[in-house]
Every structure is written in structure tokens, then in C-alpha cells.
């Protein structure tokens, strides 16, 4: 007798840098979401897929939403709309907060909207980075958060180190609805590989440039060619908003661009398990933040950026 299958969508929400992408990658067991120390790095809702449960009967489809923050620009507004949309469509919502930051103004703003935005979804609390605070402070934070909102369950975790994540995954596997799986067994993400490849390059740019990096850049995979020898040729474009930004991305004698290209290519080869020929161009598009096509590439709704 076969075990009945279960499947459901799990939305990870929280402030920028709460650790959502790190938790998603740990749950899936592979890197499907960009992880940097710079805030607001996740733009599109990336779905990572994990198998869980005692008999491996549950398929968890994780939605890594952009961080919830006070939006100022069109891109910011579209990202926040995507985050709340992801929460509203999910079977389970996991609110992530940072243990050492506690109940910030941003967390308070999220709590105020939770009831109206999550519908009938169960909402769990995951307090992340628990290694940064003492037990007494952690217990006090847990108590106060549960006084402010009726969470279905609370988990104390370290997404980076893996502490407590197994218990969270087990609970999620129990909570998702009974039904057929939504994706093939061997699929770990529903983002096209073209998008994941672009995100990997954007991550390397972010890590390399740190504070110099303007937010006004995006990476698109323009062409993907499968070669007879089993390798892949990938052509990408980095769009920047100003001429001066192009020089920053190129670096002295093109050293920054070369280093980014090498780092992205090596990670793509590891991810795909085969050789990759990566070619990256940098182009200035002064108004790309106002172009509908760029938002479609990022999986965002252009209209959501309207004031």
C-alpha cells in the first residue's frame, strides 16, 4: 500500500536580510536563490522544491519572496507587491525574523498586515540567527511575538548552520494538503535555468562590488546554446542605468568583470554538472527601471510598481 501524497506552497516572508534565501537553499538542498549580505537582493519569487515527510510523501514548494520594506521606487513597489502576493497564494506562510534585531519597526508593519494578506493560510514563526542572542532574550522575543499574533507554531532556527531547520521541514510536511505532487520528483526549482543563471551572475556582481554596486542593475540571459560536446554557451547582458556604472562593473582594466565572469561560470558548471562557456556584456540602458520587459524578465508585475 502506497503512502498518500501531499503537496503545498510555502511562502517565506520577512524583512530584507532575514535569511529567507538561505533557508530556502537549505530546505531544497541546492542553491536556487541568490544569497548576499546586501539587502533587497531577491527580486522575483523563486520557487524551490523539496521532498519531505517520514516516507518522503510531501512535496514542499517554497516561494522565496522579496524582503518586505518601505518601497520608494517602481522596482521596490513591484517587489513588495510580489512578496505579499506570494503570501496570499500560499498554503502555509513562514514569517522569518532575526533574533538579535527583535521586533523592529519593519516587523511591526508586517504583523499589522498579516491577517488581511495571508487569508486562510497557516502562519508559522521562524526566529532566525538564534546563535546571536542569549536564551532569556530568545524566550522573551518568542513570548512577545506570539502575544502580537496567533502563530500556528514557532521555530527557533539558524538557517545558515541548519539548527532547527529539520523540525521546521518536518512540520511543514505534515501541514501541507493531501493531493498529487505539483512538479516532477527530480525538479528542484520552477524558475527557468536562464533565470537562475542570470541570478547567479547578479549575485557575483553584488558580492564583488559591495557598497560600490548601484541597485540600478539587472542581469538577463540573452541566449542559451546547447553544444554537441555536452557543454553550454550562455550569453548574458548586465544592464546598468548610467555610464559611470558601466565603469564600476568593468573595473580597472576589466578585472572586475573578468572575476565576476569566472566566479559565475564556475558556479554554473557545478550547478549544471557540465562545462559552461559564459559571455557577459555590459550595456547602459538609462531607463531600464521603467521598461516593462525588464520586469517580465525578473518575474515581477510592471503595473505593481505604479504609485
Provide key terms for this protein.
Rossmann fold, 307 residues, G_ERA_dom, single chain, cytoplasm, GTPase activity, rRNA-binding, nucleotide-binding
The CATH architecture name of the largest domain reads 3-Layer(aba) Sandwich
- The helix/strand series, from N terminus to C terminus, equals EHEEHEHEHEHHEEHHEH
Average pLDDT taken over every residue: 81
CATH homologous superfamily of the largest domain? P-loop containing nucleotide triphosphate hydrolases
Quaternary organisation: single chain
* Shape summary: globular
- Count the helices. How many? 9
Major beta sheet, specifics?
A: 6 strands, mixed
Strand residue content: 15-25%
Annotation, overall tally of beta strands = 9
Task: Give me the Rg, rounded.
Answer: 20 Å
The N- and C-terminal alpha carbons lie at a distance of 55 Å
Low-confidence region ranges: 38-43
* Cross-sheet strand order for the largest sheet: 2-3-1-4-5-6
- CATH fold title of the largest domain: Rossmann fold
CATH class category of the largest domain: Alpha Beta
Amino acid at each position: 500500500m502506497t503512502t498518500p501524497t501531499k503537496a503545498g506552497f510555502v511562502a517565506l516572508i520577512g524583512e530584507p536580510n532575514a535569511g529567507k534565501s538561505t533557508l530556502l537553499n537549505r530546505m531544497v538542498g541546492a542553491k536556487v536563490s541568490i544569497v548576499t549580505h546586501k539587502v533587497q537582493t531577491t527580486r522575483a519569487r523563486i520557487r524551490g522544491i523539496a521532498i519531505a515527510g517520514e516516507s518522503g510523501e510531501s512535496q514542499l514548494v517554497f516561494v522565496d519572496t522579496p524582503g518586505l520594506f518601505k518601497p520608494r521606487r517602481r522596482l521596490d513597489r513591484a517587489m513588495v507587491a510580489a512578496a505579499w502576493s506570494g503570501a496570499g497564494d500560499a498554503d502555509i506562510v513562514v514569517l522569518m525574523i532575526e533574533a538579535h534585531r527583535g521586533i523592529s519597526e519593519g516587523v511591526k508593519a508586517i504583523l499589522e498586515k498579516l491577517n488581511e494578506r495571508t487569508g486562510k493560510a497557516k502562519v508559522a514563526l521562524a526566529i532566525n540567527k538564534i546563535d546571536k542572542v542569549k536564551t532569556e532574550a530568545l524566550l522573551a522575543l518568542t513570548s512577545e511575538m506570539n502575544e502580537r499574533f496567533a502563530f500556528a507554531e514557532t521555530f527557533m532556527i539558524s538557517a545558515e548552520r541548519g539548527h532547527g531547520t529539520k523540525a521546521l521541514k518536518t512540520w511543514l510536511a505534515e501541514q501541507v494538503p493531501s493531493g498529487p505532487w505539483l512538479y516532477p520528483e527530480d525538479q528542484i526549482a520552477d524558475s527557468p535555468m536562464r533565470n537562475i543563471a542570470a541570478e547567479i551572475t547578479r549575485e557575483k556582481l553584488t558580492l564583488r562590488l559591495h557598497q560600490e554596486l548601484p541597485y540600478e542593475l539587472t542581469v538577463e540571459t540573452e541566449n542559451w546554446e546547447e553544444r554537441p560536446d555536452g557543454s553550454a554557451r550562455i550569453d548574458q547582458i548586465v544592464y546598468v542605468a548610467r555610464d559611470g556604472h558601466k565603469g564600476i562593473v568593468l573595473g580597472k582594466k576589466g578585472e572586475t568583470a573578468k572575476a565576476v565572469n569566472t566566479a559565475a561560470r564556475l558556479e554554473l558548471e557545478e550547478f549544471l554538472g557540465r562545462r559552461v562557456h559564459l559571455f557577459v556584456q555590459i550595456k547602459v540602458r538609462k531607463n531600464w527601471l521603467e521598461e516593462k520587459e525588464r520586469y517580465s524578465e525578473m518575474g515581477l508585475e510592471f503595473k505593481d510598481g505604479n504609485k
